[in-house]
Every structure is written in C-alpha cells, then in structure tokens.
Amino acid sequence: MASSASRFCKEILTKVGYGKLSCKLWGENVRSAEKFIALHGWLDNAGSFDPLMEKFLTKERCVACLDFPGHGLSSHLPSGIPYSPAIEIQGVRSIIKQLGWTKYNIIGHSMGAMRAVLYAMCYPEEVTSVVALDGVIIPLKFTPGAPYPAFGRQLDKYMKYCDTDSDTDREHTWEELKDRWLSAVKDLREDDFNILMRRGSRQLDNGMYIYTRDKALHSRTNMVLTHTTDTIIDSIKQAKDCSFLFIQ
User: Fold this and answer.
1) Average pLDDT, stretch 193-209?
2) Which of 13, 62, 131, 190 has the smallest count of CB within 10 Å of its CB?
3) DSSP letter at 65?
4) Exposure of 28 by Cβ count < 10 A (0-12 exposed, 13-18 middle, 19+ buried)?
5) How far is CA 109 from CA 45, 47, 211, in A?
6) Whole-number pLDDT of residue 227
7) Where are the strands (E) in the chain, listed by range?
8) Residue 141's pLDDT is what?
C-alpha cells in the first residue's frame, strides 16, 4: 500500500554528458514550498530518505533526493573516468539548474554530508542551510598533506579495476543480496535493505539480481578530499548567510 507521502513523489531525469541523473522529487506544492535537496551516502541511493519523508514532508516543503552519479538509477561514468567530489557536486548543480531553484537547503548523510558542505562553500549565496549527518569533514582526521598518498592508492586501485575487471556484473539471489548487506552494515535493518534495493538492484530475466551502482565506486577515489581543515572551516565562516548543523 502506498504511503501518504508517496502520492506526492515523482521521478525526474536530468541529461548530462555521460547519460542521465535520476532524482526523486517529493512535494505537493513544489513551486511555492520551502526547498530542500537531500544527498545520500556512499553506495546508497535516493531511497535512503524515503522513511524520513513520512514525517518531514508537509505542504510547505518539497525535497529533491538525488541519485549521485554511479548510484541508484543514475548513469555510470565511462570506464577510465574516476569518481570525484567535482563530478558529484556537478551532479547536484545539474539537478538544481533543471529545477530552477535559487534558494534552498541541503540535507546530507555521510558522503552526502561532505558534498553538502563543499557545495554550500561553492554557492553560499544560494544555500540557506546545511544539515550534515554522520561523517562530515574527513580532513579533520588527517595532518596537512596526508590525503594525497591516500588518493594515490585509491587511484591505483581504480586503474587496476579498469584494466582487469569484466563488464559482466555478478548475479545474486535476493537472499544473497540481503545477507551481504546485513552482514556488512551492522545497523542496517531488513526494512532498510528493502528500501535501498528498490533502486539499488535490478532483477534479470533469469530471476537473479545485480546491483545498479557502478562497481568502480569501490575504488573510493571520490572519498579522499584534498582540502585542509583550516580551508574548510574558513570557507564555512565566510558563508555568513548559510547556517550549518553537524550531527555525528
């Protein structure tokens, strides 16, 4: 049975150079409502925010939940083009441009929280507020310069993947998918898994399932930031008209 919130949800697609970006747009009065864009975590998808919509969505709010490039129903990057914060921020910008929004808030989880902060630093005159959930500002864990060797290791991993990995995706039964996720993510419930797999998997004609996300994401080239902590904090301070809330 469809939820009350799902009656006001539609899929929108944005054309980009490598294919399309997919987005779930929630809201009854999109034109006049307060606007939010929601950014999911690494290897997740826009479905991460489905449960939140039941309580958060009102007639006065609309929310655009993006599938980052290579995630969910969005297109994968061509082989040989590594994922990066710039690609993901460009994806957010493409959705914002299509929607025609000029003032909006951002909610981000994990990797999405990091992208939310970076995006707000790039466009402080447009972003009213940022809510960053769980895992923001990774450079706080590094001494200056330390992210660079980490990026080098991940880039080598990605290039090895491009040279050796097959185009054929591994097939799984539904139970195998569930067991893999529930064993890998200790706090994940079966209901959470079912929500993520609505756009995170695809059933084949033989009844088996494959992931919709790009396998190249496992190289994590997009997870190593080369900004120093001081640079990020100074940029946040300069975004005087944007409020930041960090929840760890």
Assistant:
1) 93
2) 190
3) E
4) middle
5) 11, 12, 21
6) 56
7) 9-16, 19-26, 34-39, 61-66, 104-109, 127-133, 201-203, 209-211, 243-247
8) 45
Looking at residue 27, its pLDDT comes to 93
One-letter amino acid for residue 26 of the chain: W
Is 110 in the active site? Answer: yes
Q: For all residues of the chain together, what is the average pLDDT?
A: 85
Of the candidates 221, 16, 237, 220, which has an alpha carbon nearest to the alpha carbon of residue 117?
A: 237
Residue with tokens 């009656």: 7
Our separate counts of H helices and E strands in the chain read: 7, 9
Residue 174 DSSP symbol: H
Residue 92, pLDDT score = 95
Of 158 and 40, more confident: 40
Rg of the chain over all Cα atoms, to the nearest angstrom: 18
Question: For residue 84, with 0-12 CB atoms within 10 Å meaning exposed, 13-18 middle and 19 or more buried, which class applies?
Answer: middle
Q: Which of 110, 129, 166, 219 does the annotation list as catalytic?
A: 110
pLDDT of 229 higher than 70: no
Report d(CA 178, CA 25) in Å as an integer. 27
Helix, strand, coil content of the chain in percent (nearest 5)? 40, 20, 35
The answer to whether the CB of 80 falls within 8 A of the CB of 149 is no
